[in-house]
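@channel anyone free to eyeball this complex?
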Amino acid sequence: MTVSTNPTVGQEMEHPSAPLLRMERIPHVWCPSCGIGTVVKCYATALERSGVDLDKVSVVSGIGCSGRVAGYLKLDGFHTTHGRAIPFATGLKLGRPELLVTVISGDGDLVGIGGNHFIHAARRNLDLLVILINNFIYGMTGGQNAPTTPLGAKSSTMPFGNFETPFNLPHLAASSGASYVARWTCLHIRRLTWSIEEAIGKRGFRFIEAVAPCPTLYARLNKLGSGLDAMRFYHDTAEIRNGADTREVDVSFQSPIICGKFVDEERPTFLDLMHDHYSNRLGDGYVPMPPEGGMLHER
Amino acid sequence: MKADPAGVLTGSHYLDGDFACGEGAMAAGCRFVAGYPITPSTEVVERISRRFPTLGGTFIQMEDELASMAAVVGAAWTGSKTMTVTSGPGFSLMMENIGLAAMMETPCVVVNVQRGGPSTGLPTMVGQGDVMQARWGSHGDYEVIALSPQSPQEAFDLTIDAFNLAEIYRVPVMFLMDECVGHMTEKVVIPEAEAIEIEPRRLTEKSPESFDPYQVEEGQLPEFARAGDGYRFHTTGLTHDEHGYPEMSVECQEVNVSRLVGKIRDNADSIVRFEEEGVEDADVVVVSYGITARVARLAVEEARSQGLKVGFLRLVVIWPFPEKRIRELAGSVGAFVVPEINYGQIALEVERAAAGQAVTWPVHHAGGAVHSPDAITEIIIKAAV
Ligand SMILES: Cc1ncc(C[n+]2csc(CCOP(=O)(O)OP(=O)(O)O)c2C)c(N)n1
Ligand code: SF4
Ligand SMILES: [Mg+2]
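replying in thread with the prediction:
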């Protein structure tokens, strides 16, 4: 087992989230001071604090640097195809409704190639917790433009600066029907952790955007300095505005990032609506899928 | 294991092939279906969406076929038997996640009610042009199983077989119907549940501590754990080791691909299925499948009435292809005649398997209708000379 070094010289201690991590997979693939690891830590801590049965938790990722998250968590983990984490997770949730299914993936993955699934899952209010790691760029493939790249920011395919209007992600989620919407940066680890924990305890389509530094590509291409500089930037400029109108939380190049919980509104989920509808229409004839899944099996 | 009576509509029915396929899926224990509407396959999910709420099954109409296929792979990891249904353009969209199913070794069934292509082609009219795509459509090297029914009765029976084969080999199974079989209505006899053999999902008996999702001990297949049972396993579409962890190496790639391919190729003799008749002393053997097999049979009868010695071989399982049998026959017959509603797909397989010992005559049809039996008879006569 890999261990991290305790600041107390000569003593070694286990990583506090070790029971939830695949320690045999460390060192991980991420660059030094990349923000993805911070999100993993926040998620692991939130899960532990929430007290949910970890055997019933599935994590699904798509493809990208952020897509590697599922591979480091000691949970049922699925590293799927680019853009398809949400529909894959939909199958898991509907196939075994008692599962707590989390999607953790990148901005390009979830709202670029996978954008259609994102809006439809939100519209259906499917019982999924979606954590989107937004580094404003396609990291894994070398820094190409993303649907989140701010106007004017450089990427490898917009070498003269991006001229496409990016998505305002909280607004996209909220207007598509998400029942919980929040945004934090990797500096806000306590608030991000708390938000994830809160969202774990809720139902329906829950969306949390985690703004993360990508020092290797986004920061380098835009001369923004190190991961630490990104933290300093978040510290000096980020604004917490809980309950803000999501129309007003769009991100411009190096503009203050507005954080907070923007939407928290319980409404019937896809499964609630399906059960109610069939119960009304079919009465005793309705046989819902059992929580443990509708399968025929033999051990 | 016997079928669950709840899903089995025992009795004699008058059903079209699409409905019969849906009934076959429910009888086989399928309880999760995701799909996106497309002619001429939609009736399969219309049937299922009406019956599922009474059977503990869930149907979801996804936003597209990419999502449908991904959902079916995800749901299969809960231990459920899962299926998606589509036609031409939708089949193309499913390809990436069919590859994911193959790579993760996920049992599932993909129904393609073939219509005329390419592109939007002939939405309401028949084709058989997706045969090679069913085998090779996703990138990289892998093997699948494909079946092709010739009637609504077979649409029912073979759908059950498709689910069973998916379980036995942990592969996505392609169910290649065609518009004619899908929309043709005939008598379909659905047996009692006890008479239907079902291959259950076999879950590992190992403890979570001793389980690895891709460790192969006996035979060519790893054991299966489903999500939510405490195994906390990992799986990926990347080349992976026995723990299901990514490993980017030539050696690991060799282990992965050789097993994905080998588990089908090495068992081809038990998977291959065809019907033949009158081939032993034939000069010409007609090879066909799906709706075209029914038309070809008329041509065979006509040619025989003209005194020709014509045999007939119908593929029930298309992939893996019965190449051994074709090679054997090629030693004794002069020619093969292969009618199919495309410009030569199985004909090329027959030619390859015959390995120069017998001539192969394709009978092309671009789609939109079945062959005229006369067009086939004409080629049989030419081939017999
Ligand atoms: C179908 C498909 N198209 C393209 C790719 C190449 N690809 C891999 S990761 C990626 C972008 C990922 O971006 P994002 O989701 O933002 O993740 P990040 O690496 O930034 O964390 C792309 C385009 C792929 N794997 N599959
Ligand atoms: S390229 Fe960027 S996003 Fe990817 S691991 Fe490195 S820092 Fe993180
Ligand atoms: Mg990104």
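from a first look: Chain B has two domains: 5-195, 275-384.
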